[in-house]
Design a protein that fits this description.
The chain has helices at residues 46-49, 55-62, 73-82, 91-97, 118-130, 144-156, 166-171, 173-181, 195-203, 211-223, 237-256, 272-286, 304-307, 350-357, 368-382, 388-407, 425-432, 443-450, and strands spanning 9-10, 20-22, 68-70, 87-89, 102-107, 135-140, 159-165, 185-189, 228-230, 263-267, 293-299, 309-314, 323-328, 362-366, 412-417. The chain is an alpha/beta fold. The chain binds pyridoxal-5'-phosphate (PLP).
């Protein structure tokens, strides 16, 4: 069965790593809608954004036309510590599933932060340092982004202030300690340290926090402290740009062996790994050079693409951030407390939202028990203990491979294995003890959140 033609792991050489990030928006005819000022509803100007974000990152954020951005040498050097990441041919999984499908995954978990987030963390920290800033503030949910940013900041000697969603802060003490090992200051959110945190606590005493709320606190902290800017680990155009290294490496590796994927699958929280993984492939699709089926996978308990509306919304609960046009559940949406699988953000990258709106990508949602079944199956067969987030993609990759078995089609499937799950053993424990439940919000619940969308004339 197993042929040796394509190796288990396709590694690139250092000099085959991308020297420029690819900006997918350059090839989109219909561009993603611009960020709007939350008060005037006018497109955000670079000068306004520069109060919150680093200057060079603002330029990347607003640039819909430049296809390539050179990756500075210092960032490439940092990338070399843990990249290129392997493109793995999942021979064992194929054999176990007895499928004619060929399955590949791009593994981003081979670094201490345990996920792809480091690809953008180092870029954002680099530009902050270059601007002469003292430090950066951010939010973290499950903790992967905070960990990645703490690593990048410590490498560049920048101060790092992390607002960590309270329930994660309490449930994931080990991630918190990894961040502190790298010198970051970690505060559970909502906190009394910010005005917006105090307001949220007054309105919802005992709240376990949310990403949207932690974002508001981190932004406030940045704008009210000299020499600080805010950085965000997903959703933004700049983050998708940095994450394009994932797709560019995957494409180079495939090209070496003259392989072309038919189906590309990624989990979608804010959309950064999926946006990065598909970037060069979607570029070809947009230019009419090739076609790919692309599937975004989200949790049934936080279904922004599959059940959200395409509208302008706040990126945060405190409504201090710019408005972004995206598929959203409403900025005060908080997934059910029993949701353990990550991907909890209420909205979605505006680029992916626009591609989905145009029918260029598909989206599907999965229940968390099915996700953990896939996670465990994958761990046993391929050896890697996957992050719950990544396991959303594994679930659909397996389902597609099984469908190939039924139809006899030899499809080539690529999915993004975004990270490892060592810090998610509480969730695995719930699954093993059969305490994990599926929660699907009702139409009434979703409608109630939708009522609070800002009214923007388009
Ligand atoms: C953050 C994270 C995700 C989801 O974020 P995206 O921006 O949608 O990519 C997925 N997998 C892992 C391991 C993560 O840490």
């Amino acid at each position: 069965m197993i042929t040796e033609k394509i190796p288990y792991k396709i590694y690139l050489n250092e000099n085959e790593m991308p020297k420029a990030w690819y900006n997918l928006r350059a090839d989109m005819k219909q561009k993603p809608a611009p960020l709007l000022n939350p008060e005037t509803h006018q497109p955000m100007q670079a000068s306004e954004l520069a109060e919150v974000f680093c200057k060079e990152l603002v330029a990347q954020e607003l640039d819909d036309n430049t296809p390539f951005f050179e990756i500075p040498q210092d960032i490439r050097n940092f990338y070399k510590m843990y990249r290129p990441s392997p493109l793995v041919r999942a021979y064992c999984l194929e054999e176990k599933l007895d499928t004619p499908a060929k399955i590949y995954y791009k593994f981003e978990g081979n670094n201490t932060s345990g996920s792809h987030k480091l690809n953008s963390a180092i870029a954002q920290a680099y530009y902050a340092k270059k601007q002469g800033l003292k430090g950066v503030t951010t939010e973290t949910g499950a903790g992967q982004w905070g960990t990645a940013l703490a690593m990048a900041c410590s490498y560049l000697d920048l101060d790092c202030k992390v607002f960590m969603v309270k329930c994660s802060y309490e449930q994931k003490p080990f991630r918190r300690e990894v961040m502190r090992t790298y010198g970051a200051c970690v505060t559970p959110s909502p906190s009394m340290e910010t005005t917006v945190g105090q307001k949220i606590l007054a309105a919802h005493p005992g709240t376990s926090g949310s990403l949207g709320c932690a974002i508001s606190e981190a932004v406030e902290k940045a704008v009210s402290n000299d020499g600080y800017r805010y950085v965000l680990g997903s959703v933004l155009n700049q983050v998708l740009l940095h994450q394009s290294v994932i797709g560019l490496e995957a494409k180079t590796a495939f090209d070496k062996y003259h392989v072309k994927p038919d189906i590309i699958i990624g989990c979608a929280g804010g959309g950064s790994n999926l946006g990065g993984l598909i970037a060069p492939f979607m570029g070809e699709k947009l230019r009419g050079e090739a076609d790919y089926r692309i599937i975004a996978v989200e949790p049934a308990s936080c279904p922004s693409l599959t059940r959200g509306v395409y509208a302008y919304d706040f990126c945060d609960t405190g409504m201090v951030c710019p408005l972004s046009k995206m598929y959203t559940l409403g900025s005060d949406f908080i997934p059910s407390a029993n949701h353990a699988g990550g991907l909890r953000y209420h909205g979605m990258s505006s680029t992916l939202s626009e591609l989905y709106h145009q029918g260029l990508i598909e989206a599907t949602s999965v229940n968390q028990t099915e996700v953990f079944e896939a996670a465990e199956y994958f761990a046993k067969v391929e050896g890697i203990l996957p992050a719950p987030e990544s396991s959303h993609a594994i679930r659909i990759a397996i389902d597609e491979a099984v469908r190939c078995k039924e139809s006899g089609e030899e499809k080539t499937i690529l999915f993004g294995l975004t990270g490892t799950g060592y810090f998610d053993m509480k969730a695995y424990e719930k699954f093993h003890d059969k305490e994990m439940e599926d929660y699907i919000p009702t139409e009434e619940e979703l409608a109630a959140y939708r009522k609070n969308l800002p009214k923007v004339e388009s």
